[in-house]
Amino acid sequence: MPFAGRLRLGVNIDHVATVRNARGSAYPDPIRAARIAEAAGADGITAHLREDRRHITDADIDGLMEALTIPLNFEMAATSEMQAIALRHRPHAVCIVPEKREERTTEGGLEVAREENRLAHFIAPLREAGCRVSIFIAADRRQIEAAHRIGAQVIELHTGGFCDAHAEGDEALRARELKALREMSAFAHSLGLEVHAGHGLTYDTVGPIAAFPEVMELNIGHFLIGEAIFRGLGPAIAEMRRLMDAARA
Predict the structure, then answer these.
(1) Which domains does the chain have, with CATH numbers?
(2) What are 103-139's pLDDT values in tens digits?
(3) Which sequence positions are flagged as catalytic?
(4) pTM above the 0.90 mark?
(5) Which distant-in-sequence residues (6+ apart) come within 8 Å of 71 by Cβ?
């Protein structure tokens, strides 16, 4: 079993930009949010530059690359436009995610097994540029094996099914989803992949995932931005950090 060291927290600031863009104003500023997150205990910042620019913008990425002293995890679709942006900025990490214009949020993991050749060629220049390449996938052995074959260094397991089952009170489904996440975390680690997890995590659901010794990082955004309305962003992140550390201990 791997050593369960300190679990990293990546804070996704997309929905600070969502609020800003709702009025077409200059505030709230995602870069200010990133600085607050760092002060509150975040180990990295995640930002998803979507093809339709519905929240994070190109200027946000420019600003984050200039302002951050902690790593930026640049979430993006596997398109030539996004590859060019990543190669220009060379962020610490690039996470490849599926993207559909009609979805409200990322609905599932990337289909790697059916697109191995394309994705292998897509991520090769990113690795050569010094970016750590992560693939956002379901807790599925076939997808994990494919991610390993194409040369990804990291996988991020989609926790949305587990979180949805918890919210709906479906204990049987919750248990199945948690079992799959636990087993596939261990399997990915056995292949030499670094394991991250995220999507839909809240104070109520973070503990079981944080307790997996193979998981090195959690990326959490929408819940924290929502909770910030009531607690403030710094305290909301600090509480998540506390719960993660308690689960790890």
Answers:
(1) 8-248 (3.20.20.70)
(2) 455 456 899 999 999 999 999 999 999 999 999 999 9
(3) 48, 75, 199
(4) yes
(5) 43, 44, 45, 91, 92, 93
